Amino acid sequence: MTRDPKPEAEAAAELMKAMTRLRARLRTESAPDDMQWTWSQLTTLARIVEDGSVTASELAQAEHVRRQSMAETLAALRTGGLITTAKDPGDGRKTLIEATPEGRALIATIPAARVSWLGGAIEAHLRADERETLLKAAAIMNRIADSGS
Fold first, then answer.
1. Fewest C-beta atoms under 10 Å: which of 42, 71, 125, 141?
2. Tens digit of each residue's pLDDT (9 = 90 or more) over 89-136
3. How far is Cα 61 from Cα 146, in angstroms, rounded to an integer?
4. What are the CA-CA distances from residue 120 to residues 29, 49, 112, 114, 117 (Å)?
């Protein structure tokens, strides 16, 4: 006798599939200049812009990646002129990362095309109650992303 998969496993599989498809679609809706940057580079840069001065370790933890992976991401952003680094005035052993004006400008413009497409798709294809459900789902997904397990 075969058992049905656990509801949690089925939900996880469906959620991963949907997120992968939506992520791919959002990438195609980006401005052409945006395509030189990877998704992880853009999300890291967005976090730097949002959080202000931050260390590489803090970024790695927040983005749920290894420090080595974050170092590679930061190297690409630095080479592209999107971030700068400086010694922490409070602790000279630490290096703080900040977005350059070019990095801030990129983060300000990239999401516009994605938000425009996604907002239009939500408006065109979802009922009011589904929009409300989507907002609740986004909050739940953020909670899962921030969880320790």
1. 125
2. 888 888 999 999 999 998 888 777 788 889 999 999 999 999 999 999
3. 10
4. 12, 26, 12, 10, 5
